[in-house]
Write a structure and sequence with these properties.
By secondary structure, the protein is mainly alpha-helical. The chain has 2 domains: 90 residues, Hypothetical Protein Yqey, Chain: A, domain1, CATH 1.10.1510.10; 52 residues, Arc Repressor Mutant, subunit A. The chain contains 7 helices and no strands. Helix 1 runs antiparallel to helix 2 and helix 6 packs antiparallel against helix 7. The longest helix has 24 residues. The radius of gyration is 18 Å and the shape is globular.
Amino acid sequence: MLRADLSESLKSAIKAKDNRRVSTLRLILAAIKDRDIAVRGDGRADGVSDDEILGILQKMIKQRRESIAHYEQGARLELAAQEQEEIDVIQDYLPAQLSDDEMNAVVTELLAEIGADGIKDMGRTMGVLKQRYAGRIDTSKASLIVRQLLTGGPSSAS
C-alpha cells in the first residue's frame, strides 16, 4: 500500500533528519488525509485508494511546476529550487511515467478501442486514460495528444 510506504518513509526521513523530505511527506500525508475526510461522506470509511493517492501526487507535482514558473518569472530562484526538491521527493512515489512515444501509442490504441471519432469524445477518452494509467501519464501532454488526434491539428506535446 502506498499509504504505508509514505508513512514509513516519513519515519525514516525523521530519523535521518532530512528536513525537505520530512516536510514534503507531511504535506503529502495531509493531502491524503484531507481527501479521506472528503470521501467519508460518500460512505467510503476506508479512505482513498492507491490510484487516488497517485492522482493526489500528480496534482501536487503540477502545482509545484506552476509555482516554479511563477518563481522563475519573479527571479525567486531559491524558491523555485525548493519546489523542484519537493517534486523530486513526490516523484519517488509515482510509477515510471510513459514517454511521449509510449503516450502517443497508448492514445492512438485507445481511440481505436473506444471508437472515438471527434472532439466530443475527448472527455470520455481522458477519463479512460486517467483510470488505466493513473500516476503514469502526464494528463496535460495526453490531453494535447488526444486533441490533436481527434481534430487532426498540430500537437505541441513533444
